[in-house]
Amino acid sequence: MVASQTATIVSINPATKEVLGEVPVLGQSEVQAAVERSWVAYENWSMLQFHKRTRKILELRRVIERKQDEIADLVCREVGKPRVESYLSELTGPLDTCVWLSENAERMLRDQLIQLPNPMLSSKQSLVAFEPLGVVGVIAPWNYPFSIPMMTILMAVALGNTVVLKPSEKSPLVGIKIGELFEAAGFPKDVVNVVTGDRSTGEHLSNCRLSKLIFTGSVEGGMKVMAQAAPHLTPVTLELGGKDAAIVLPDAPVDWTARGIVWGAFTNAGQACASIERLYLIKGKKTDALIERIQHHTKALIVGNPADPNVDIGPVVDEIQLEKVISHVEEARALGATVLTGGNRRDDLGGFFYEPTILTGVNHKMAIMQKESFGPILPIMIVDSEDEAVELANDSEFGLTASVWGKNLARAEGIARDLNVGTVLLNDCLFSHAAPQLPWGGLKKSGFGRSHSQFGLQDLCNIKHINIDSPSGSERIWWYPYGEPRVKVAKAGIGLLHGTFPVGKTKGLFSLLGNMFRKAKK
Ligand code: NAD
Asked: Which residue CA neighbors atom 19 of ligand 1 most closely?
């Protein structure tokens, strides 16, 4: 993607370098205008009854299902995603989200009554209402250009928010398609606005008056967005990078585990925030066999233009990404790592291709074990114990997901609890982003906040507390006037509620009865 002088960006197929289209880089006034239109749309959209909004969401489900080939084809061409992934990892998450929201969101966000056991509050009733926030800004990456923004937008609009989406400059056509789908499903105008452009457009958006900003992208981008949102105190959710570890126990079934690891490392050409980027094998009798099987399944992968449904690995997204991958492999090689398979760019294929690559002899001084590579490379370390595997897995500035592989599930779960990440999957990897019921988000430089699930939904609401009491309700002993009798009542109350039984509580009770009706100071 290149910014031209006429303030447009050109979308390029990374498999062929063919130009797919050109879209405008929207400036400050255009982004501002889109946000203002979204505020106007919010007035009516937020007032609609839940079921009327979910009816539109179910209509959108129909539209996505009808247009699945068109969407998958565009994703495949614009970011080089293999065809199977263009359907499975891009479409199922949004479609499932439509169903999940329509069946559960209203129930999950019903008013909640809160009990107040303290006798001083006995006449009060508290409830929590979940109300829409307003206009939500969504700044999206290119690696899952449809499913990531789509799932977030669906959750935001189901609750009555309106959204302004800034798609990645590397996948603007998919972003525009998202806007068209909402229109085709009959959503009112401006409930979802799409502003195309590069990071300057994202900067303008994060400078606007928004109720919330959800940023998915690089750590550097996230830090800037947080600073840009600070003057407005716009709350941000940051979904950032990962360097996700897989730990394999010695009892893991060899061939099955090898297939899972190979998929986790190389799906989407390794360009998933939750890709397996580090593999720790706990030494056992089958370690060599496992490495051999990983190599075997990797060598069988077909690299090429993902328009061919047989292709397993497409290109990386651009030359910058390709050079980053190469630099990680070459640095590791220079520091003594062994490339077991792959290790070459494939210019002969016409786009930004790199062979799926496996390395051993790596260590944590190398960038390949510390920095996000975001490419089809899998560095493997053999370790002596579970403790060592956990220590190394946690030795990272990231904390997004991890996976643990093995037959002994109690042992695997024990390891899962020791890992400093937001999600741990046993005997699988990556899939959980597509399940809207499950929380998604990380620790450390992987960001903060949770999307998806009931927690993500609540994050898109104003969680409003309303407390109800009448003028004839219980005595407000915390109101004026103060004085010595009031101090005695306070101490007696603490004794009664929190003193030891029977002495403290009995003393508290008598003291309370004795002081309750004494006059406070004038
Ligand atoms: P990026 O940070 O370059 O760009 C992401 C989006 O932010 C783009 O739309 C871009 O235009 C915009 N942007 C960049 N700088 C900005 C700024 N200063 N102000 C406002 N907007 C700005 O990231 P990318 O290359 O598109 O995405 C890859 C990264 O995203 C990887 O690190 C990956 O791990 C991460 N990612 C994380 C998750 C997650 O759920 N945690 C999911 C997907 C991708």
From this structure: 203
Domain ranges of the chain: 25-240+454-464, 244-434, 475-522
Q: How far is the CA of 415 from the centre of ligand 1 (A)?
A: 30
Closest ligand 1 atom, residue 274 Cα? 34
On whether the pTM is more than 0.85, the answer is yes
What are 172-210's pLDDT values in tens digits?
Answer: 999 999 999 999 999 999 999 999 999 999 999 999 999
* 410 CB-near residues (< 8 Å, 6+ apart): none
Indicate if 429 belongs to the active site: no
Which pLDDT tens digit goes with each residue over 360-396?
Answer: 999 999 999 999 999 999 999 999 999 999 999 999 9
Ligand 1: residue whose CA is nearest its atom 28: 217
| 16, 192, 221, 352, 380 from 345: Cα distances, Å | 15, 40, 27, 8, 20
495 alpha carbon – ligand 1 mean position (Å): 55
| Architecture of domain 25-240+454-464 in this structure | 3-Layer(aba) Sandwich (3.40)
For residue 475, the model assigns a pLDDT of 83
Ligand 1: residue of 81, 216, 322 to mutate (most ligand atoms within 8 A of CB) is 216
**CATH architecture under which domain 244-434 falls:** 3-Layer(aba) Sandwich (3.40)
* pLDDT tens per residue, range 251-294: 999 999 999 999 999 999 999 999 999 999 999 999 999 999 99
